[in-house]
Amino acid sequence: MSELKEGAVVTGEVISTKPFGAFVKLESGETGLVHISQISSKYVEKVEDVLQVGLSVKAKVLSIDPSGKISLSIKALSDDRPARDNKRGGGDRRGGSRRNNNNNPTDFEDMMKKWMKSSEERLSALAAKQKKNR
């Protein structure tokens, strides 16, 4: 086994995808797992929507358990960017330039904002209808 440490940034190639994540063969020859929740800060419905076998990725080592299983995160390397984008203003902490890529699902926060707006509009219409019927 190599001298991998928690917090290290590593490069590897996706060798397999499963419903729960992707296995990545690291340059050291070891294999680590990127859980589906650690692929992106955006909602990932299917691993294959974001990662494909043969794709080269950079990831952060989250943990190495006593049996040698390596837990990786691609998301951890991109989480620093939103905080810097927020300082420039613009409201959305994720910035606007990359949000609605055709390859990535819509950002969860955007989905929630749309749902809230739709819900408020429906409640307002219902309240107006009830007031009219009184």
- The helix-and-strand class reads alpha+beta
CATH topology of the domain at 8-77: OB fold (Dihydrolipoamide Acetyltransferase, E2P)
Tell me the total number of β-strands: 5
Helix and strand run: EEEEEHHH
State the distance separating the first and last CA atoms: 75 Å
- CATH class of the domain at 8-77 reads Mainly Beta
Strand content: 25-35%
Biggest beta-sheet profile: 5 strands, mixed, barrel
Q: How would you sum up the global shape?
A: elongated
Radius of gyration: 20 Å
Q: Can you say what the CATH homologous superfamily of the domain at 8-77 is? A: Nucleic acid-binding proteins
Tell me what the CATH architecture of the domain at 8-77 is: Beta Barrel
Low-confidence stretches: 80-92, 94-105
Summarize the structure.
With 134 residues, this protein is α+β, with helices and mostly antiparallel strands. The protein has helices spanning 75-78, 80-87, 108-133; strands spanning 9-18, 21-26, 31-35, 56-64, 70-73.
Q: Which labels suit this protein?
A:
S1_domain; about 130 residues; mRNA binding; alpha+beta; OB fold (Dihydrolipoamide Acetyltransferase, E2P); Ribos_protein_bS1-like; elongated; 5 strands
